[in-house]
Design a protein that fits this description.
By secondary structure, the chain is an alpha+beta fold. The protein is built from three helices and five strands, in the order H-E-E-E-H-E-E-H. One of its GO terms (molecular function) is RNA binding.
């Protein structure tokens, strides 16, 4: 790797055992979004209160979601990646 690549590479937050990568496909309102998860499932995700005012989530953003144990078609958003971080994840092959 060149120095430029090493310099631009950052250590990113990776998913825990119960989290998956997802891409926001649709804004539903009422703090809910539609996401397409890396495991192939389309889910309705909830933006928790601690993120609502601090982090702005838009369509095509890459996020980490935590699917619910008792209802697989729903999830909670646990992290949002910046555009540059999402590009790095794509380059490294973590997401499509």
């Amino acid at each position: 790797m060149s120095d430029d690549e090493n310099e631009s590479r950052r250590d990113l937050r990776m998913p825990n055992d119960d989290e998956v990568f997802a891409v926001v496909t649709n804004m539903l309102g009422a703090n809910r979004i539609r996401v397409r998860c890396a495991d192939g499932v389309e889910r309705t995700a909830r933006i928790p209160g601690r993120m609502q005012k601090r982090i702005w989530i838009r369509e095509d953003d890459v996020v980490l979601v935590e699917p619910w144990d008792w209802q697989d078609e729903k999830a909670d958003v646990s992290w949002r990646y910046e555009k540059s971080e999402a590009d790095q994840l794509r380059r490294e092959g973590h997401i499509q």
